[in-house]
Amino acid sequence: MNTIKPVLWDSQVRLPDGTLMTGAPISFTENASYCRKQAERMAEQTREVWSKARYAVERMWVLCSDLQAQIEELARDDGFRRKYASNMLRWVLDSAIEAVSTDMGNIQVYDAQKASFLIRAHRGFDETFLRFFDSVPAGDAVRESAAKSAKPVIISEVANSPVFRSTTTLEVLLDAGVRSLQTTPLMGRSKAVLGMLSTYYRTVGAISKKNLRRIDYFASKAAAIIEWQNQAPAR
Questions:
Q1: Cα separation of 199 and 183, whole Å?
Q2: Number of domains the chain is built from
């Protein structure tokens, strides 16, 4: 006795090859077989996509590991550390100057061998000013006061300040257009003075507490950069 396969009749049927047929009979068995093959094909495609994604993730971790190793190698190079620190100090100074609405400033770093503060970043000064202040002795009145008190030294009127009276420093400052200034010590975690952040103004007057807080914020960033550079890299 022959088994009669149930047949599904449809007015329009699209075959696997894309051909559209009208009134074509499709057995339930053939339809199930076709669906199973489609499902197997989709499963295979899913496995292929997953395999490629897993490879991409694994490759990314390898590249990240290689990049980290290169960064650590660069960080051990003294030349790179100096250059990176100098670039970052310039960025800190520019940000501080813009935050307090002036156009002159510098960051000096203390050199223990020379017992002096050396300019590492500057903005708004000519060569005469930079040559004069390129190496300021640690005993300089403003810096010595800032270092001892661990607080900013503010001079609201340069021309009448006893600190600069009858000094060459006063002449250089006035020639540069400086009428008031502040110098903030850069304090390390050990409370050692690492340098100074100074901003200079073309007008006479006190510096607001708001601007002093802003300068203090950038001074902490500069201190962290100097401390990082001074740290002996692990070999």
A1: 7
A2: 2
